[in-house]
Automatic annotation (TrEMBL):
All residue ranges annotated as the FAD/NAD(P)-binding domain in the record: 13-352
Family in the record: Belongs to the NADH dehydrogenase family.
The keyword Transmembrane helix appears for this protein: yes
Name of the protein this chain belongs to: NADH:ubiquinone reductase (non-electrogenic)
External alternative NADH-ubiquinone oxidoreductase-like C-terminal domain residues: 381-452
Known EC number: 1.6.5.9
Catalytic activity of the protein: a ubiquinone + NADH + H(+) = a ubiquinol + NAD(+); a quinone + NADH + H(+) = a quinol + NAD(+)
Record organism: Tetraparma gracilis
Keywords: FAD, Flavoprotein, Membrane, NAD, Oxidoreductase, Signal, Transit peptide, Transmembrane, Transmembrane helix
Length: 463
């Protein structure tokens, strides 16, 4: 690929903030015509990682490296911002001057960085929401970034060693059981899938490697609402709860965490006095909120971006993902309030794909793509979740049975289907495998799964 644009006018300089789902799919569409723009990606993370398999990294079902993909490999085809300048800048964007079209960022060593743009795509994702509950930031592990998976894995291994040493030194079974009580807060898909993975780890691996203490270990899932997986079909919520419990977890719904200390949670249950739950390891999976950067941008733009009496959940965008109130700025993924989309990888991926194609094919005017009869339409493919012991749940949208009303399908599209158990697990695995972004990731995840399936076992110590 030539480093010089084909025409005399320099190709527009596109700056992308973030290396997540939205950015990766945007880049994949632009890569079809890599000389159409000069690209700079700014992100604290020099890699993309496959969030749907994150929970499995904490228990060693898959390795961290297997689900991450260096961003630089995907930037090689593009023109650099200017001769010799980097296509990727490792930094946290902190501000945008919409008048001069300049992004300010801070590098890992605190170096201030300025990058000007012709077009800006904001795809910085979302942040963990702790609802300011006291003690959560200090005492809980999150399940959001690759580092969180690594941190939890180390914590699990350390805790198992500590518990074994304590039991050998004569500690009571109650004391040891407290250390091996793994509590996950949040019965959304993140919390449920982590509970499932922890159950697999305790059953398949801890039992063999730590036989003296394995019987004392337990996983509890705490959810404030009346059911887990509340956004799924009601039957799935019930089924998942039953199966998690059958696999050995305790599922406490209607239980709101109010505070965390170093070793216990204060919880409130409707109509009951507050109670406490002792834990050895605490994981917070209570949901997401807008990042500080996103909030700052929204406040700076004002108007519709700052609705009265409501928290800022993301940047308001038009149907072409243009950020309302400023020019040449687009937002996609979890940081954008796109109509009909929830904060999922599925939505971020489809948005990035549409915007990349629109920028590429319509002279950097996605509004033209929208007007010319190619509007963005979110195709909801449904939701899937792993629930442990090679079982899953799947709520599939518009599936196979088009034109088969007797199976729930309509004339104008497919029907919805609920699949549970081993069948759903097979769908979950095949679908998530097929969506891995690179052949390298596919090979490595395939090998990791094969190893566990063949009895090779997950890691029980952190090297
Ligand atoms: P992200 O993928 O979060 O990427 C944001 C990027 O921005 C990152 O590279 C980050 O480092 C970078 N960034 C952050 N701050 C800045 C800054 N100031 N400046 C520049 N860059 C910045 N969704 C599904 O559809 N199916 C699933 O099975 C599924 N499983 C999930 C499992 C887990 C454990 C989690 C946490 C989420 C899961 N999701 C799933 C949700 C999905 O991962 C998110 O909706 C998706 O990642 C959003 O994509 P995004 O591009 O908006 O943001
Ligand atoms: P979520 O918002 O879906 O679930 C968080 C849960 O935590 C809620 O059920 C909430 O009631 C509970 N909670 C909050 N505060 C609490 C408290 N104080 N005490 C007890 N419970 C409390 O968050 P998530 O599971 O992290 O998912 C975030 C996004 O990522 C969602 O859009 C989700 O669809 C997506 N995701 C999808 C998958 C999948 O499709 N398999 C997997 C993970 C995440």
């Amino acid at each position: 690929v030539s480093a010089t644009p084909p025409s005399q006018t320099p190709a527009p300089h596109l700056v992308i903030l973030g290396t997540g789902w939205g950015s990766m799919s945007l880049l994949s569409r632009l890569a079809v015509a890599p000389t159409s723009c000069r690209v700079t990606v700014i992100s604290p993370r020099p890699h993309f990682f496959y969030t749907p398999l994150l929970a499995g990294t904490s228990t060693g079902t898959v390795r961290t490296a297997s689900i991450s993909e260096p961003i630089r490999r995907h930037l090689a085809p593009f023109l650099p911002p200017a001769q010799g300048q980097p296509r990727f800048v490792q930094a946290n964007s902190t501000d945008v001057d919409f008048a001069t079209q300049e992004v300010s960022a801070i590098g890992p060593d605190g170096t201030p960085i300025q990058v000007s743009y012709d077009h800006l795509v904001v795809a910085v994702g979302a942040d963990v929401n702790t609802f300011n509950i006291p003690g959560i930031h200090e005492h809980a592990v999150f399940m959001k970034e690759l580092e969180d998976g690594m941190k939890l894995q180390r914590k699990l291994h350390d805790q198992l060693e500590k518990a074994s040493a304590m039991l050998a030194a004569g500690a009571s079974k109650e004391e040891v059981a407290k250390l091996l009580h793994f509590v996950v807060v949040g019965g959304g898909p993140t919390g449920v899938e982590l509970t499932a993975e922890l159950g697999d780890f305790l059953r398949d691996d801890v039992e063999k490697a730590f036989p003296a203490v394995s019987g004392l270990s337990k996983v509890t899932l705490v959810e404030a609402g009346p059911k887990i997986l509340a956004t799924f079909d009601p039957h799935i919520s019930e089924y998942a709860k039953g199966r998690l419990e059958a696999h050995g977890a305790s599922v406490q719904t209607g239980t709101m965490v109010r505070r965390a200390t170093e070793s216990s949670l204060l919880v409130a249950k409707k109509g009951e006095p507050d109670a406490s739950i002792d834990y050895g390891v605490l994981v917070w999976a209570g949901g997401v909120k807008a990042r500080g950067f996103t909030e700052k941008m929204a406040r700076k733009i004002g108007g519709v971006q700052t609705p009265a009496n409501r928290p800022i959940r993301g940047l308001a965008v038009g149907p072409d993902f243009a950020v309302t109130g400023v020019s040449n700025v687009y937002a996609i993924g979890d940081c954008a309030l796109a109509k009909g989309c929830s904060p999922t990888a599925q939505a971020a991926f489809q948005q990035g794909k549409w915007l990349g194609r629109a920028l590429r094919d319509h002279g950097f005017s996605p509004a033209a793509a929208h007007k010319n009869g190619d509007p963005f339409v979110f195709a909801n493919q449904g939701s899937l979740a792993y629930i442990g012991a090679s079982e899953g749940v799947a709520e599939l949208k518009n599936v196979l049975w088009d034109n088969h009303p007797e199976w729930g399908g309509g004339e104008n599209g497919g029907g919805d289907a609920v699949v549970e158990g081993k069948g759903a697990f097979a769908i979950w695995r095949s679908l998530y495998f097929s969506k891995l972004l690179s052949g390298r990731n596919k090979w490595m995840v395939g090998m990791d799964w094969l190893n566990v399936w063949a009895g090779g076992g997950r890691e029980v110590s952190t090297p």
